[in-house]
Amino acid sequence: MKKKIALVTGGFTGESVVSLKSAAVVERTIDKSRYDIFKILVYPGDWYHEAADGQKVPVDLNDFSIQVEGKKITFDGVFNILHGSPGEDGKLAGYFDMLGIPYTTCDALTSAITMNKGYTKAIVQDIPELFVARSIQLFENKVENLEMIQKELRFPLFVKPNNGGSSIGMSKVKVPSELQEALDKAFAEDNQVLVEEFVSGREFSIGVYHAKGKTTVLPATEIISSKEFFDFEAKYSPGVTEEITPGRMSEEETERVKRIIERVYQKLNCKGAVRIDYFLEYETDKFYFIEINTVPGQTETSLISQQVRAIGMEVKDFYNELIEEMFTPT
């Protein structure tokens, strides 16, 4: 009997467009000989499965089931590819936990914490060999912030929504006169904003996942963007960014990064595949943690897929491992 897997996509934020692209790739790639896949779209007040004939089949939220051709379909597990809220911030995880349905991503607590960049940095900052940029977490957009930021932090700065993803609402601020506009842009996306000092270094993004009893750190991707920083356009528009996989690191750097990444994954109690962004500072070669993404993109330009292929693995087999891992007793 093939397992019935709900491929959950959509979402409540601007990242929903990325979720749909990711879901299309997963749906096309996943092993249909092992799994029956049902794409479930999740929007505010509107959860549904799109049938083959285009008909919207509503989801019964009492048990996360659907009716297809007169038969009730319940799911053995969930492949979560919903970026942002509610798929990445723990809300869906909590719902599935209550229903006893396993899923491919981190649990509710880890998802909620890691969605908050400031809280995540506070947890990981004492990991050996890991550094974090100096920062200020803001909870309201008030004029007094301008003076405090200029007093406590050095320009240039990054201003970003604390709970956002895909670099939406993010700005690089070089001079104080640009600060208020950047804060307004970030607060338009979130009620918490993180302002942090710019780290000058080589930028990397690295995938890590746990399956078959071991944690695998994938080869890092080095990111060389033609933009000022790795923003939404750079992430999702082909040709804007040069991505080198494996990234150019010495043997010592590769081993050090692997040690740090494994500790981050363990300390945050991650599950499934996550992607961690970091800098290696130019002057010192120190590892600076940027952020963690617990529902990494699976679009045509996504980094995780490049990294999986770099170890000689088919993306389909990678998905198989993620799905089977959620059925493994902890």
What's the short story on this structure?
This protein has 330 residues and is an alpha+beta fold. It has 10 helices and 18 strands. Strand 17 and strand 18 (287-293) form a beta hairpin.
Rounded to an integer, what's the Rg over CA atoms? 20 Å
- Helical coverage, percent range: 25-40%
Write down how many β-strands occur, each being a DSSP E stretch of 2 or more residues.
18
Poorly predicted spans? none
Q: Tell me the fraction of residues in β-strands, as a range.
A: 25-35%
Number of helices: 10
Structural class: alpha+beta
Task: Write a structural description.
The protein is built from 10 helices and 18 strands. The chain has helices at 16-29, 91-99, 108-114, 117-124, 144-152, 179-187, 232-236, 251-267, 303-310, 315-326, and strands at 3-10, 35-43, 46-50, 56-58, 66-68, 71-73, 77-80, 130-132, 135-138, 157-161, 171-173, 193-197, 201-211, 214-217, 221-225, 241-244, 273-281, 287-293. It is globular and about 65 Å long. The mean pLDDT is 92.
